Amino acid sequence: MSRYSRAKVYNVTRDRSLLDPAVSRNARRPANITKCHHTFERFPDMPELLTTTVADLRLILFRDRPAPLRMLCVVTLVVTFLQVSSTAGDAAASDERPNIVLIMADDLGFSDLGCYGSEIETPNLDALAAQGLRFSQFYNTAKCHSSRVSLLTGLYCDQAGGASLRRGATIAEVMSRAGYSTAMVGKWHLAKQPTDFGFEKYWGHLSGATNFFTGDNSFRLNGESWTVPKTLNGRPFYTTHAITDFAIEFVDQATASDKPFLLYMAFNAPHYPLQAPKKDIEKYDGRYDAGWDALRKSRHQKQVDSGLLPRKWKLSPRPDHIPAWKSLTDEERAWEADRMEVFAAMVDVVDQNVGRLVKHLKDKGVYENTLILFCSDNGACPFERTRGKELKPWDPESYWTYDASWAHAGNTPFRLYKQNQHEGGISSPMIVHWPNGLKTKAGSVTDQPGHLIDFMATFIDLAGADYPSKVGDRKIDPLQGKSLLPVFRGETREPHEQLYFHFSTDRALRRGPWKLVSAKLGKWELYNLDEDRTELNDISKQHPERVATMSAEWFRVAKDVERLGGRQLVPVGDKVKKLNFRKTPEQPASGKNRAKRN
Ligand SMILES: [Ca+2]
């Protein structure tokens, strides 16, 4: 019997309600029935416990009883035995397993947190990093829905069946079977809803993006439609605040039971539309007047000075599709600075809400044994989709985005963006905080690569859970990810043999320091990330055999593991594609303010 199973049995026997009703209803509860509970507590091992209990109950119930009552007692014993043993199998316990709070931000670039180089004020996340561990090479999948699939299932997106999850088990399904309570708040963006995939509690929106002030019609509370109110808990509705309000409510419900809990908190911020409360935006007034060229330099300097990244990785230059800040007119600069102020405010508000949750975990006395993880689903977003730039960003009718210019700064020091499999698209900040379990030096940085697919394996490791081959009628694919626990213990883990990346016509494969990557079916580029993580020196011409081998391996995984076909498997071209992500925003306002799915 494992340590965790013993813990479960021990706890079950402390719950007198499991025994008392049956015994008292059927056999007029003897005055000294509590003796059996004390016996249970002395014998946390199941076989011993049951043997001793049966003996005790015989002593208590059979002494000087008439025959019919003795028969009743036998029935009572059998019922009690079945109740205890069945409850022991699936009830979970106030054991030593940690609670898990997995937080994912949306479209947050690698450099957008203070502890990753930013000037945006994120004191709560910085404090978690200062007491915890940061990853400098943690990967997502460069896009919203595919990252959610990998985070939930431990599989690559199409391997899991994409948004349908038809070949993947979720962390909620696996952890609830292992005795965790499970809850989710925030953006779902996949098929059906979280309560169909193992989450016992859910509040949030099923859509990929929503109006932060007025929401949309995809909001759900525990499986039921939920109408977005004008105010929530005494203040104007704002999605980032509301996500935390419900997270706190779910933590209260979870800590009322003896089970450890898994809480998945999926902020929609700072995904567009760029909308934030006025006072939070005003805090950043004038902060971006120096422009994106200066911002990238200062962020990179901070990354190097703080020891997050080595100096040998050079800051990627501004690409042709982004104008120099100094080439803009005063009017253009004012508009650009304004929209970055809103983005910064949205990140600031996420941080404030992480602080609220942390305080609540402390108030509940569960902070020390809660593993908190914070990451982002993809790199900063280059899509210009602004409608109505004359409206203020605290007006619910506004719909601003920023474009490739600020996104390039968000992904400092890397190249390219959300959707691309270059480092700018797939590199995520990743903060780990867990006072009771983390053995690394406070504030340290690991350069061991990790990936969203590793969460499932990590949680299985923490919970002593089993990875299923079937969930309902879904046949589950073998797990891709690897546990991060050795890294949390300060060890060097056996690395992934390779990491595979794919979104649409963007592709990559990483093996050790070697990375093969193609954007929009442009030719394969090859980089040695140990020397050149910012992907400035394409060495594919010097290593044709490595390109051929890694390319063949990418297609093998795409075909056999991901089950891609048709257009998804067309060969790459022979030239790097000329990319242009910058467009002029549409004006004036369309009048409609529908949040687009993305
Ligand atoms: Ca996203």
Please name the defining characteristics of this protein.
3 domains; Arylsulfatase, C-terminal domain; single chain; 35% helix; 598 residues; alpha/beta; eleven-stranded mixed sheet; disordered C terminus; binds calcium ion; Alkaline Phosphatase, subunit A; disordered N terminus; four-stranded antiparallel sheet
Quick summary:
With 598 residues, this protein is an alpha/beta fold. It has 17 helices and 19 strands. Bound molecules: calcium ion.
Any overview of this molecule?
This protein has 598 residues and is of the alpha/beta class. The protein has three domains: 3-90, no CATH class; 108-497, Alkaline Phosphatase, subunit A, CATH 3.40.720; 500-569, Arylsulfatase, C-terminal domain. The chain contains 17 helices and 19 strands. The protein has helices at residues 3-14, 20-27, 34-42, 46-62, 67-90, 123-131, 144-153, 171-177, 239-255, 278-282, 291-305, 330-363, 404-410, 423-426, 454-463, 485-488, 544-561, and strands spanning 99-105, 133-139, 181-187, 201-205, 219-221, 224-225, 231-232, 235-236, 261-266, 370-376, 427-433, 444-446, 450-451, 470-471, 474-475, 499-503, 506-511, 514-518, 525-528. Strands 1, 2, 3, 4, 5, 6, 9, 10, 11, 12 and 13 form an eleven-stranded mixed sheet that branches. Strands 16-17-18-19 form a four-stranded antiparallel sheet, with helices on one face. Strands 7-8 form a two-stranded antiparallel sheet. A hairpin with a 2-residue loop joins strand 14 and strand 15. Helix 11 packs parallel to helix 13. The longest helix is centred in the middle third of the chain and has 34 residues, at 330-363. 49% of the residues are buried. Mean pLDDT is 87; it is low at 1-63, 76-93 and 587-598. Bound molecules: calcium ion. The site of calcium ion has 6 residues, from loops. Calcium ion is lined by residues 106-107, 144, 271, 377-378.
